[in-house]
Amino acid sequence: MNPKLLFDDELQRRVETISRRDFGKPFRHRACFNPRLRTTGGRYFLSDHRIEINPRHWLECGAEVVDGIIRHELCHYHLHLEKRGYRHGDREFKELLAHVKGLRHAPVLPGSGKRSVRWLLVCQHCGHEYPRRKRMDPARYRCGKCRGRLRLREIAVCDHDDGPF
Ligand SMILES: [Zn+2]
Ligand SMILES: [Zn+2]
């Protein structure tokens, strides 16, 4: 990717264009890169409606992936502004995401130290996380620390479950 494209105003225009083209609605708030994001591809903030994008996905995965992340965040954005179901688990969110072909999960970044880790087995009792490269059946294993039941989680675009939107 051309590093010259790594400017917030470039991203801002890109988000505005995708919003008009794929959603038929304007994006009237701020979009910016946040270099402090780690594995998260993007974030939407309920407080001020801004969208943040991980610049490493832009540099390392390319524009097509970032466009998919932008569409994901715009699903949160438009549904939230329209007071519809904007959360990951909401039917309206899932339908809109599928309709605009947004990414459900951001690709794992090369060299992020979690190179091929795409899945987390999470203990439902003590919360311990076991990163795994391959999808596994959580019912077949128990937590090594407390013997609790495990739940499988894919590493996601937004860490909405643990932080702000
Ligand atoms: Zn445990
Ligand atoms: Zn999301």
Automatic annotation (TrEMBL):
Domain of life: Bacteria
Pfam families attached to this UniProt entry: SprT-like (PF10263), Zn_ribbon_SprT (PF17283)
Chain ranges of the SprT-like domain: 9-153
InterPro entries: SprT-like_domain (IPR006640), SprT_Zn_ribbon (IPR035240)
Protein name (database record): SprT-like protein
Natural source organism: Desmospora profundinema
Native organism taxonomy: Bacteria, Bacillati, Bacillota, Bacilli, Bacillales
